Amino acid sequence: MSGTQLPAEHHPAHPSWPVFGHEWAVEYLQGALEAGHGEARRRGPRHAYLFLGPAQIGKSTLVRAFAQALLCTGDGTRPCGQCRSCRLMSSGNHPDFRLVQPVTTGGEIDRAGGMLRVEQASAVIHDAALSPVEGRYRVFAIQDAHRANDSFSNKLLKTLEEPPEGVVICLTAADRGSLLPTIISRCEVLELRPLPVAKAKAALAAGWGVTAERAELLARLCNGRLGWAVRQLGDEAAETQRLDMLQELWRLAAASRVERLDFASAAAAQRENQQLFAMLEAWGTWWRDVFLAQNGCLDAISNVDQRAEIDRQAGALPEASVRRFLDTLQRVERYLHHTVNTRLAMDVLLLELPRLPA
Ligand SMILES: [Zn+2]
Q1: CA 120 to ligand 1 centroid distance, Å
Q2: For the segment 274-318, what is each residue's pLDDT rounded down to a tens digit?
Q3: What is the pTM of this model?
Q4: Distance from the CA of 18 to the center of ligand 1, in angstroms?
């Protein structure tokens, strides 16, 4: 995700890594690079890494920074940001870095609906056999490995088993569940964790010049995924969309059973999956806030611009119904990821929505 790429000077803990947060992973990767430069050269970078974590948490940004460090012709242990290689990486033109993303049957990049296809694995194998153009390594970033079909995975496995000299393959995926165990076992696995609110807030202020108030709101709403917050910055409609979703939610909470079921039916029929998940996420954040307020933790809420309404609903609803709804919401989200019956799942959800006095 190039949207979260940063100028090198902005990172406080690792000045030369264009990454916010994930310090332990940066240290680990830098350690591998430094070891690779030692005299023994025995414990240098591995030939395959798997970066796990939710969407927009910073996996691809970290992979890009690692690739930059591998390819950098400076001291070879960190991305210097100055050399020809680093400049080629920043402009997205490094000949030894290859990004592989899910595509449609027509070959269009489509991260939400596309697949990693066998011909892409063939291209990786072909390119991996070539010598690097600029330096010592050839780096392949395979994004959304959970969208690989079996033929892609099986084909790639051969290269993971016997990688050509100087090849480093970095896979990113949401979780282990959707990957072949044989793929996982051949990779060094790094599981990225959500950024704490304070770090996300500081990153938004330092890296993107966001005002304190807006940084606070986005840092709390993003659930530790800086990429999500950054995307909101470039999207003026996003703020309106969030408020629209909340108002719709409040209306539904005061609506009749029939109105709720009508909404469930329309949502199941018309909405793209991604929109549906965005809505469910906004709902989850909202009810978590109400629950926090009910438990005297108003300071920990995410929707900091809606304090008064959160407080009002916290007082008007039984805590048990809010807690039960949060459980249902989690369950329904899980179902929807393994698409069962969307309509049925939405019916259950809407009927369990806490009931606000009309
Ligand atoms: Zn460099």
Answers
A1: 29
A2: 788 889 999 999 999 999 999 999 889 999 999 999 999 999 999
A3: 0.83
A4: 12
